[in-house]
Amino acid sequence: MRIGVVGAGTMGVGVAQCAYQAGHAVVVTDTDPAALDGAPARLRDGIRLSRVLGRTELAPAGGALVPVTWSGDPAALARAEFVIECVTERIAVKQEVLGVLDRFCAPETVFASCTSGIPVGRLGSFTGRPDRVLGTHFMNPAPLKDTVEVVRGARTGDDTMRRALDLLTGMGKRAVVVNDGPGFVSNRILMLTINEAATVVRQDTADASTVDAVFTQCFGHPLGPLATADLIGVDTVVDTLDMLREHTGDDRFIPSALLVDLVEAGRLGRKTGHGFHRYPHAGPGR
User: What pLDDT shows up at residue 51?
Assistant: First the structure.
């Protein structure tokens, strides 16, 4: 199958790696030349890490591996049978991308959004094919996470769901299917936790390391909420909170002042080397 991926940031490259390692022909597009320039190296690094961890099984679905194609032209996706959109978590950006895809891609092409919380029904309304739109919320890092939150909109068709689930199974992923709604299950809950954790730090009840230690050492979570925010990207957390506030009207989703301050200071987490915590090796992407 020919898989299209829109966005050559952290998530887009990770999703492209999942499709590539499953043996699919992959086309990745991005309008940012800098993102495209660095993407092949990041893909190679991701594959190398998967091999080190013993997680790489190459090309069972499509036979011999073919190179991933990188392009700044959305027309390169015209022949894609399944497109996964991995652009910034902002409605206006996703609306523009989906509109472009709708013009270039065949009517039967499925559009899956890697949105972390924008309702699928709203995304589908930006196209002429709402029955071909669903959410595939990959977790970061996509190649190392075995489960995907799959979101079925009210108008998502049975064939669309079947094709998505078959694709994910071929990637070695488990699908947890949920119904549509702002934030779905994962981020409807997680973002409130991160927001409150940031407020606790801002109020000086505890520092970030202590907050995370409560979750990892007392609750047994593999990662604390603020380390999770750094992994996601603090800017993405703020964008997601803003989106949840818009769609729910719930003031609990107003971003903590500390989150906003970190974004304004460029402390976005792992990708910049500094968020709530410091990281020795910053990674590019969005």
Answer: 86
